[in-house]
Design a protein that fits this description.
The chain is of the alpha/beta class and 484 residues long. Helices cover 39% and strands 21% of the residues. The N and C termini lie far apart (73 Å).
């Protein structure tokens, strides 16, 4: 079991750069998925804590020190935070691994990406600028990009530090003041990064963090009349609630709600290259990744070869505690484990292979042996619903048209990949995918801070990462001056 070198936090929220317990005094356990045991406590916040955080953000945005900074100064603060995250990356990774259960190597990669978000958006802060539009002869027309004001951020437990960077860094870079509600299942690195932001010199109220349950603290933030925009990553069910509250407050929102992302393998694909990626894309982070490649669509001519390759690879994978050798850690909670085991028990398709659970892993941990099923009916539950676990379904297809129809045949649309050596087919299929990102002869779950990312339909809307996020966190103002 990994150990953390960081002191565990007191149960408190970060409001106006001061650590404050919940007004009610309530706190709740933090459980490590590695052994199922509580090891820390966080504030179990209510609406009054959210009120205080939104008020602190409002004060920072309207007249506070934060509002007086230039774009370059904001960028410098973000860069300083990036350096601090890098300096503390190993300890942060150990904390993340214990809190979330993810393999330590995954947690290390996450910290590099988290720092990179603050570096990328720190560098971008003073490079986002307006435009001039040619209009009537006696007019000057300027387009200004302005921050929304106070932004709400509700993030999930699967990548607590990365999600913090992805959601909050572009909001701060553009001058918003942020209130973050991380997930109750795993939020200790988010709290630590909050402390590092204070050390880096962020003025009071620029960044506020309120911990607690979704139905209380999360709901209070999403319906708060004092927020001007909300960014949410999590389940479609809660996404509907967030969007409903945003509608009541007449504000915009970004929703990232997961997916059922396909990898399409044609007969002419380089199977040596594709097979390991088919496996890692659904095993990474225990399959608890919004962009997990959870469907393998395989053309008839290579179906048997791909199934044989997947069988050998899945049989060799063992879930284990999250030490140096681990590739598959425990799932986040007993609830998530039960949910995934339920999908496995009711897959309704032949089991191709099941991996194992390493002997000696702690008894109380939330371990699930990985599973691959096929051939799966493309319309079946296992092929349509997001499992959010180490479960791959393999679906055969005859030709390109059928592959496209199956790939686009779910309610989701987040990521897709196409494996083929045929250049024209690469272009046709990539253009036909109804989703936000397509990879040709590769797959990128996570990473790629520069690359705009987001979904369609049940996967959500709006774009994060890249410059696209800077656009989402700003609102456009047109100023027309008549100069005669
Ligand atoms: P969830 O959507 O309930 O939780 C995500 C975040 O929303 C957490 O911070 C939570 O506290 C907050 N939240 C929950 N209820 C809320 C409410 N009524 N108002 C405001 N905020 C609220 O997701 P959960 O229950 O942890 O996972 C269920 C399933 O959702 C997973 O099995 C997976 O399929 C999907 N999911 C997708 C994620 C993604 O990356 N797109 C991340 C997490 C879950
Ligand atoms: Mg939930």
């Amino acid at each position: 079991m990994t150990r953390t070198d960081l002191p565990l936090p007191e149960p408190a929220n970060l409001i106006g750069n001061v650590w404050q317990p919940a007004v009610s005094g309530a706190s709740m356990d933090v459980i490590s998925p590695i052994d199922g045991l509580p090891f820390a406590r966080i504030a179990d916040s209510g609406p009054e804590d959210v009120d205080a955080a939104v008020a602190a953000a409002r004060a920072a945005f309207e007249g506070g020190d934060w509002s007086r900074l230039s774009a370059a100064e904001r960028g410098r603060l973000l860069l300083r935070l990036a350096r601090r995250i890098e300096d503390e990356a190993e300890a942060l990774a150990r904390l993340e691994s214990r809190d979330n259960g993810k393999p330590i190597r995954q947690a290390r990669a996450d910290m590099a990406v988290t720092a990179r978000y603050f570096e990328y958006y720190g560098g971008a802060a003073d490079k986002l600028h307006g435009e001039i539009i040619p209009f009537l002869k006696d007019c000057n027309v300027e387009l200004h990009r302005e921050p929304h004001g106070v932004t709400g951020h509700i993030i999930p437990w699967n990548y607590p530090a990365q999600m913090f960077g992805r959601s909050v860094a572009p909001a701060l870079a553009t001058g918003n003041a942020a209130v973050l509600k991380p997930a109750e299942e795993a939020c200790l690195t988010a709290l630590r990064i909050g402390a590092l932001a204070v050390e880096a010199g962020f003025p009071p109220g620029a960044l506020n963090i309120v911990t607690g349950r979704g139905e209380t603290a999360g709901a209070a933030l999403s319906r708060h009349p004092g927020i001007d925009f909300i960014s949410f990553t999590g389940s479609p069910e809660v996404g509907v609630l967030i969007q409903t509250e945003a509608a009541r407050n007449f504000i915009g929102c970004t929703l990232e709600l997961g997916g059922k992302s396909p990898q399409i393998v044609f007969d002419d694909a380089d199977l040596e290259a594709a097979l390991p990626v088919l496996v890692t894309a659904v095993i990474q982070n225990g399959g608890q990744t919004c962009s997990a490649g959870s469907r393998a669509l395989v053309q008839r001519g290579v179906f048997d070869a791909v199934v044989a390759g997947l069988k050998a690879r899945f049989e060799a994978i063992e879930a284990s505690d999250s030490g140096e050798e681990a590739v598959l850690g425990p799932l986040i909670s007993a609830r998530q484990k039960a949910r995934v085991e339920g999908y496995i028990a009711n897959a309704g398709a032949p089991l191709i292979a099941r991996g194992g659970i390493r002997a000696g892993t702690p008894d109380g941990g939330f371990y699930v042996a990985p599973a691959v099923f096929g051939p799966c009916d493309p319309g079946s539950r296992i092929a349509q619903e997001e499992v959010f676990g180490p479960v791959l379904c393999v679906i055969p297809f005859e030709d390109e048209a059928e592959a496209i129809a199956i790939a686009n045949g779910t309610e989701y649309g987040l990521v897709a990949s196409v494996w083929t050596r045929d250049g024209a087919r690469q272009q046709r299929v990539a253009k036909a995918m109804r989703c936000g990102q397509v990879f040709v002869n590769g797959y990128g779950a996570g990473g790629g801070v520069e690359l705009p990312f987001g979904g369609r339909r049940k996967s959500g809307h709006g774009r994060e990462k890249g410059f696209a996020a800077l656009h989402d966190f700003t609102t456009l103002k047109t100023i027309v001056t008549t100069h005669g």
